[in-house]
Amino acid sequence: MRSRQYGSDVLAGGPRRPRPGQRPVPEVQAERGLVVEDSEGRFCGAVVAYEKGAVTLEDRHGKRRVFPLSPGAFLHDGQRVTLIPPAPAAPARPARTASGSVAPPSTRAKVARASRIYVEGKHDAELVEQIWGDDLRDVGVVVEYLEGIDDLQAIVAEFSPAAGRRLGVLVDHLVAGSKETRIAASVRSPDVLIVGHPFIDIWAAVRPAAVGIAGWPDVPPGQPWKEGVLHALGWPPEVPAAWKRILRSVTSFADLEPELLGRVEELIDFVTSPGSE
Question: Of 16, 131, 162, 186, which one is least surrounded by beta carbons within 10 A?
Answer without folding.
Answer: 186
